[in-house]
TrEMBL record, chain A:
This is NADH-quinone oxidoreductase subunit J. It is an enzyme of class 7 (translocase). It comes from Streptomyces cyaneochromogenes. The keyword NAD applies. It is found in: Cell membrane. The keyword Transmembrane helix applies. It catalyses: a quinone + NADH + 5 H(+)(in) = a quinol + NAD(+) + 4 H(+)(out). Pfam families: Oxidored_q3 (PF00499).
TrEMBL record, chain B:
The keyword Cell inner membrane does not apply. NDH-1 is composed of 14 different subunits. Subunits NuoA, H, J, K, L, M, N constitute the membrane sector of the complex. InterPro entries: NADH_UbQ_OxRdtase_su1/FPO. One of its GO terms (biological process) is aerobic respiration. It comes from Streptomyces cyaneochromogenes. Its main location: membrane. It is found in: Cell membrane; Membrane. NDH-1 shuttles electrons from NADH, via FMN and iron-sulfur (Fe-S) centers, to quinones in the respiratory chain. The immediate electron acceptor for the enzyme in this species is believed to be ubiquinone. Couples the redox reaction to proton translocation (for every two electrons transferred, four hydrogen ions are translocated across the cytoplasmic membrane), and thus conserves the redox energy in a proton gradient. This subunit may bind ubiquinone. Coiled coil: none annotated. It comes from the Bacteria. This is NADH-quinone oxidoreductase subunit H.
Length: 206, 322
């Protein structure tokens, strides 16, 4: 969704600027982009390799925050803030909640390795290769014109989302709705089986 | 004025506001609570009605030893107060207090999203503190914080979305620019839901279950002493400033007022913020603490449906008047 929106706006505003840029004379923004990218990548690596569960969740915050900064540098302001709102503000809080419920220990957990290391690495490399190929193929040498009107403003993102990409958007909505209904069904089933055999009725806690 | 000087000046002003307003609210809380309970409150520090009490408190905090428990996760324990406090400083940057570009730290295109996103990050500080303290009261406090945040983030977002729909923009100055007086009755349900959800996110009474001092000894902050504890307290009061400012900007029309000359809009903003802050203090003195199940019930069975109804109402009215 973010890629598509960025692609649509990038094509609209940035095609002519390609000649003016080279790889050998990077601007400040490009250097910042690269550095933040390296930090994000490093944080992501620590997230999956650290043996301290809560630290992994906190490194995930750094990773997701780094991604948000990358979006900002690509002028996609709206997407950057939504990234922070949804992933850092909600998903990581949910993760931490789960970790605290299971009383994650302070210090290393020696058994925090599932033995799927190589399978996970293969999947990760394959996914990364696919994404890099798609992004490189889609954008080639397009550059964002930083001096022109903001290419990733809320208005531009909204227009491209609801004019060109409505179908994928609605498809995703249906998928999320299905997941929501599924979660409700699963939790209700678990509750029904738990209270079925002559269990005392639930009382109001006081 | 050249750019660098302009930016420095804006940052400086926001920083000064960030340092003083929470203290003013804290002192007001001392006095208002005291008078509501038939006491006088602090009377000695500084001479006139104890105005310097919080300064004295600050000096006291700075003198205390900074203790990290032996079993704690040292780095995270020490980092947590900063994570709790800094987001409010960033949010303050985006809140406009008057019309025009001159009266806001930085105009942000997707201001509503920025503000809500960054406020959500602040809660990570409490979670980190709760886990890293290696204390069961802290862990309980952290758990309650997380549960409360998950429940109250949704109605807050939905009501903010309702205002954004009404104004047709997600920029905070843009929303206040579009404000008309009849938005007040139109968005009143959303305003109340937003304010209540914000109180819960700040863990202010009656939503102070996560820090309930009489049962879990200040929850996530049990093990903190000295300056780090003071930073958590400062975060709470900075949070009040931010919440009241945001409610003013989103629902009460910011710098619009029934009368008042051009250029005095910021007085209205500050006045409305101050009244809301007074209400926050008033609620603390008036209401008993909600139990955990009552907290969850209030959010999921009352606030979420109300905010959804508000969005529907906003949509219908918006279509009708166009």
């Amino acid at each position: 969704m973010t890629l598509a929106a960025a692609a649509a706006t990038a094509h609209a505003t940035t095609t002519s600027a390609a000649e003016a840029h080279g790889f050998l004379s990077p601007t400040g923004v490009e250097i910042a982009f690269l550095l933040v990218g390296l930090v994000t990548f490093g944080a992501a690596l620590v997230t999956v390799t650290t043996r301290q569960l809560v630290h992994a969740a906190l490194w995930l915050v750094v990773t997701l925050g780094g991604l948000a900064i990358e979006y900002l540098l690509l002028t996609a302001e709206f997407i950057a803030w939504v990234q922070v709102l949804i992933y850092v503000g909600s998903v990581v809080v949910l993760l931490l909640f789960g970790l605290m419920l299971t009383k994650a220990p302070i210090g290393r957990s020696p058994d925090a390795d599932s033995g799927n290391r190589w399978a996970a690495l293969t999947v990760a490399v394959a996914a990364a290769a696919t994404l890099i190929w798609v992004v490189v193929d889609a954008f080639r040498t397009t550059w964002i014109d930083l001096d022109g009107p903001a290419a990733g403003s809320t208005k531009a993102t909204g227009e491209s989302l609801f004019q060109n990409w409505v179908l994928p958007f609605e498809g995703l909505s249906v998928l999320l709705l299905a997941a929501l209904v599924g979660a409700i069904v699963l939790s209700r089933q678990a509750k029904a089986t738990a209270t079925e055999p002559g269990a005392p009725s639930e009382r109001e806690p006081r | 004025m050249n750019d660098a000087l302009d930016v420095t000046l804006r940052l400086l002003i926001v920083f000064v506001v960030f340092l003083t307003f929470p203290l003013i609210i804290g002192q007001t809380e001392h006095k208002v609570m005291a008078h509501m309970q038939g006491r006088l409150g602090p009377m000695y520090a500084g001479g006139f009605h104890g105005w310097a009490q919080l300064v004295a408190d600050g000096v006291k905090f700075a003198q205390k030893e900074d203790v990290v428990p032996a079993g704690a996760d040292r780095r995270i324990f020490q980092l947590a107060p900063a994570v709790a406090l800094l987001p409010y400083l960033l949010v303050l940057l985006a809140i406009p207090i008057g019309p025009g570009e001159g009266a806001v730290g930085e105009v942000i295109d997707a201001g509503i999203f920025f503000v809500l996103a960054v406020m959500g990050v602040g809660v990570l500080g409490s979670l980190m503190a709760g886990w890293a303290s290696a204390n069961k009261f802290s862990l309980l406090g952290g758990l309650r914080t997380a549960a409360q945040l998950l429940a109250y983030e949704l109605p807050m977002l939905l009501t903010a979305a309702s205002v954004a729909m009404a104004a047709g923009t997600v920029s905070l100055p843009g929303i206040v620019d579009a404000f008309e007086w009849w938005w007040l009755p139109w968005q009143i349900v959303g305003a109340i839901v937003f304010f209540v959800a914000g109180l819960a996110e700040l863990q202010r009474p009656p939503f102070d279950m996560p820090v309930a001092d009489s049962e879990i000894i200040f929850g996530a902050y049990t093990e903190y002493t000295g300056l780090r504890f003071a930073l958590f307290l400062l975060a709470e009061y900075a949070g009040i400033v931010v919440l009241c400012g945001l409610t003013t900007v989103l629902f009460l029309g910011g710098w619009h007022g029934p009368w008042g000359a051009e250029g005095l809009g910021w007085v209205w903003t500050l006045l409305k913020t101050a009244v809301l802050a007074f209400i926050v203090i008033w609620l603390r003195v008036t209401y008993p603490r909600l139990r955990e199940d009552q907290l969850q019930k209030l959010s999921w069975t009352l606030l979420v449906p109300l905010s959804l109804a508000q969005i529907a109402l906003t949509g219908v009215v918006k279509v009708v008047i166009q």
